# Entry
Amino acid sequence: MVCIIKYNAGNIASVKNAVERLGHECIITDDKAEIRRAGKVIFPGVGEASSAMGYLKERELDTVIKSLDQPVLGICLGLQLLCRYSEEGNTNCLGIFDTTVKKFPLSDIVPHIGWNNLEHTKSSLFEGFGNDDAVYFVHSYYAEICTQTIAECDYILPFSASIQNNNFFATQFHPEKSANVGERILKNFLDL
Amino acid sequence: MLKKRIIPCLDIKDGRTVKGVNFVGLRDAGDAVELAKRYVQEGADELVFLDITATVEKRKNLTGLVEKIAREINIPFTVGGGINSVEDAQAIIKAGADKVSINTAAVNRPEIISEIASEFGNQCVVLAIDTKLENGEWTVYIHGGRTPTPLRTVDWALEGERRGAGEILLTSMNNDGTKNGFALDITAAVSTAVNIPVIASGGAGTMKHFADVFQQTRASAALAASIFHFGEISIPQLKQFLKQQNIEVRGEG
# Structure
């Protein structure tokens, strides 16, 4: 069973649809016991960091997430909330990844919206990923590159497109919106 | 490198059908989901669905269709047409759309831009601007291009950005339907003025028109409808052409 953590953030239904297209059962819930029991946990999110963290704390989901030992996949804001700190609303985040989240400098169009390539992919998450393959991004904040970075993207500056620490994986891009390439990445996670 | 996006636009009526489509090889040329899936397979980077349903009553069918589209396709899509309130936007986004486009409602009450943006994030709000050149000035039209407003196009785009729009969908009424190419001057002016992505729309007739808008303006994406629906230009062929012009685009699937 795949469990998607429910909180006050955007289009979670798309993630569920994508998981179901890959033939997995999937629920969206904020039930702590249910989340702890799940075989895989997906932590999605679109929205603003400080209000999302506030919501997680209110429901004690922050401690639940930090205690998970099954494979976890953060997506977009999910990746940012797994970092140490975000400039967005001066937010102390979950601290699973040893890096900080900053706002893109406005020297080019922000938000970074659209399809972009990945560089230096190094994880089973990217098995079968080709050099020309592109994935879909939409974000105004980015996680700095750190030793846990498993894929980079270059927009305005190089940033972490994907990060891993033990059982915690995360992507800044949206695998659920990245056509067949994204489906493959999601499948690689679900096959872990 | 960030890719320039190619976006087919589908007109939706009464929650089901697509008008003006003549596509060989589809079971039902009017089925929006079938057509959307076809475009995804061909390498469309995003889709826009525009609801042209006349009555509020029939519009309720739209959320059902959005749910179906969201289940079937795996690229981002925007839904627009008749979104008048945060509640309208919420229903569409909850049904699975990634973004909503707002047009007339934003001119009538600009606060709606920030209201939707603060609820769902800036990236959810596409400000659609219909613009027309008259007496040397590009101004904004509403109600599907029927009603003029005193707003100057570049000013309105800047205000939209300031209020939290994540993207601008700019349609030139002078060019729309002509197949003579995009309105390069106003697209350049708007895309230079704002620092959010601009989607150029209206007038695409040849593959070169797409190259022109990407080479001569700062547009991030280009949208077209009939030339795709009638198979005059296929998306793989278009992307091949753009690659040859050294324009960064994404391949199929």
Summary: Chain B has eleven helices and eleven strands. The radius of gyration of chain B is 17 Å. Chain B touches chain A at residues 1-5, 40, 45, 67, 70-71, 74-76, 93-98, 120-124, 166-167, 195-197, 218, 220-221, 250-251, 253 (CB under 8 Å). The mean pLDDT of chain B is 92.
